[in-house]
Design a protein that fits this description.
This protein is of the alpha+beta class and 297 residues long. The protein has helices at 17-21, 50-54, 67-70, 79-92, 106-116, 136-156, 160-170, 172-195, 221-237, 248-254, 256-261; strands at 5-7, 27-29, 35-37, 60-62, 129-133, 207-214, 241-245, 268-277.
């Protein structure tokens, strides 16, 4: 990145916090006892904003970031209150796949989008894009196309040659997921999907958020998974239900009609999707799960 980093020596109190907090160790104290950015390191600044967010006197300026537009003051919190709120959220959240036939207000969706912007990226700035689908008619119209796509996929996987090609293309781990989970699930669901009696793909959700990456740029899959998790948790806090659905993206990515329906550009690739709506049912209890193994060293 082409960055300009400056420190106002008249307001800098030399607390050294920017030196400590910078993940790329760009700041140093020079021979004149001034805090300065190393000129040879400025190009590795990723504009994470840590230094500016920490500076008590707002003495630091970085090109592309502004205290007025890119930062806000944080209120003080009691650690116990934050802890209780967080664990209440994760204990009560469930993946929701049954929704009321009620539209989700745009102001709630805007809050979810805002929450997604706080998901930490590997390297700023945020590179993923979102498509927020409120049009339930569009979702319902795309369902038969998606069903045809997966019906064709299941039939293709019965051909040993095609199955071999898919395995070589997908890699061993992804192929195991296809063979052990996706294919059995599709084989079970497709009859009802084809006759229109059930929607076990979109789950009759009134809203979907598609998370997109540029297929020609670096891999941001992990960033998007974290962002979708932020979206899912924020939906729960707003009284909505949500579920990350990974069966939707492959069909949209590979079917020309679906790409057109959802307004994808040639470089767009859907990485994951989030279905949203008001939960039809209320869970009475949470579920405890055990991690496969935990080593304490």
């Amino acid at each position: 990145m082409n960055n300009t980093i400056q420190i106002d020596s008249t307001t800098c109190i030399k607390c050294m916090l920017c030196v400590e907090i910078c993940p790329n160790k760009i700041f140093i104290k020079d021979e004149q006892n001034q805090i300065i950015p190393k000129p040879e390191s400025m190009h590795i600044c990723v504009r994470c904003g840590h230094c500016m967010a920490m500076c008590s006197t707002k003495a630091i300026s970085i090109s592309g970031l502004s205290y007025d537009t890119d930062f806000f003051d944080l209120p003080s919190y009691q650690a116990e209150d934050v802890q209780n709120a967080f664990f209440n959220i994760i204990h009560s959240r469930r993946s929701i796949r049954n929704f009321k036939d009620i539209p989700v207000p745009k102001e709630l969706l805007e809050k979810i989008v805002d929450a997604i912007t706080f998901a930490p990226p590997g390297f700023p700035p945020l590179k993923h894009k979102l498509i927020v689908v409120q049009n339930t008619d569009l979702i319902r119209q795309s369902l038969p196309i998606m069903v045809r796509f997966y019906d064709g996929f299941v039939r293709m996987m019965k051909n040993p040659l095609m199955k071999f090609i898919v395995k070589k293309s997908a890699g061993n781990k992804q192929f195991k997921t296809l063979e052990n989970h996706l294919l059995p699930m599709l084989s079970n669901r497709l009859p009802a999907l084809k006759n229109g009696s059930e929607d076990t793909l979109f789950r009759n959700a009134p809203c979907i958020i598609l998370f997109l990456a540029d297929k020609n740029e670096e891999d941001i899959t992990r960033d998007i998974v974290i962002a979708a998790t932020y979206g899912m948790l924020s939906a729960h806090t707003l009284g909505l239900g949500a579920c990350i659905i990974d069966i939707v993206p492959p069909a949209i990515n590979r079917d020309k009609a679906l790409r057109k329906m959802y307004g994808l550009s040639p470089e767009d690739e859907v990485v994951t999707s989030l279905i949203l709506g008001y939960p039809k049912y209320t869970f009475r209890r949470g579920i405890k799960r055990s991690i496969k193994n935990v080593n304490w060293l």
